[in-house]
Amino acid sequence: MKRVLIVGNWKMFKTIPEAVNLVNSIKAGVHKISNCDIVACPPFTALTAVSELVRDSNVDLGAQDMHFETEGAFTGEISPMMLKDVGCRYVILGHSERRAYFKETDELINKKVKAALKYNIVPIVCVGETLEEREAHKAFEVVKKQFDYSLADLDAAAIERVVVAYEPVWAIGTGRTATPEQAEQMHSYIRRLLNEKYGREVAARIKILYGGSVKPDNIELLVSKPNIDGALVGGASIKAESFIQIVKNSLPSEIKSNS
Ligand code: PEP
Fold first, then answer.
1. Domains of the chain
2. What is the pLDDT of residues 192-201, one digit of tens each?
3. Residue 164 CB-density burial (10 A; 0-12 exposed, 13-18 middle, 19+ buried)
4. N or C end of the chain: which has fewer CB within 10 A?
5. Percent of the chain with pLDDT over 90
6. What is the rounded CA–CA span in Å between residue 74 and residue 93?
7. Helix, coil or strand: residue 136
8. Residues lining ligand 1, CB < 6 A?
9. Active site residues
10. What pLDDT, on the 0 to 100 scale, is given for residue 1?
11. SS (H, E, C) 220-256
12. 21 marked among binding-site residues
């Protein structure tokens, strides 16, 4: 049975009291669920408070970005050591908003991926094409380049600790979801790239998440596809009801009724 991973990216939303309320509501809504991995990624300022509240729960903590150095004169940055210190098990890297607004390159993302692994933090590495690239029939080429360079120089033991997130940029925050078929087509392509590089057994163990306007009413069909192992959820993760419902609807039907 597939064990789905659902990650909430809270982006630049939530003060500390709001984050506390949100995580408490999420915890209450998902506490009976054991067949799904659930991660909340609050903004940096709320990590400490949320970390205390998710300890001993079935919700894990993640961050939305980090620097690749352990420490140093990098004003404004947060290091993997600091994320580990605050209790993060996951970190989102190479989100399209970071690529677009902060000019992050695949080479920089690759350094961050290696640094996260060094600190035993699971990197959730985002790839995905823009609308122009899709319309120019370049989606596969773009994703391959992001895959090759942002995940460069990782051996099988390292790649097994990575989560890949396919997030078509045109579907993020737009309400326009890729159809489950469109998403599966790219996910199976990414699985093929993993197969070619690491072999079938290793490739089969790597989680590939879909992200882009995931909602309670589209998650079920998305995760029913063989190569979609969960979701990276933005907008719908900052309201407890919709995030809880996404988690519940992602469960295999035989256990949905008990949660
Ligand atoms: C995201 O921020 O990673 C995302 C997928 O956002 P949304 O769900 O709002 O499209």
1. 4-256 (3.20.20.70)
2. 999 999 999 9
3. buried
4. N
5. 94
6. 18
7. coil
8. 9, 167, 172-173, 211-214, 232-236
9. 95, 167
10. 81
11. HHHHCCCCCCEEEECHHHCCHHHHHHHHHHCCCHHHH
12. no
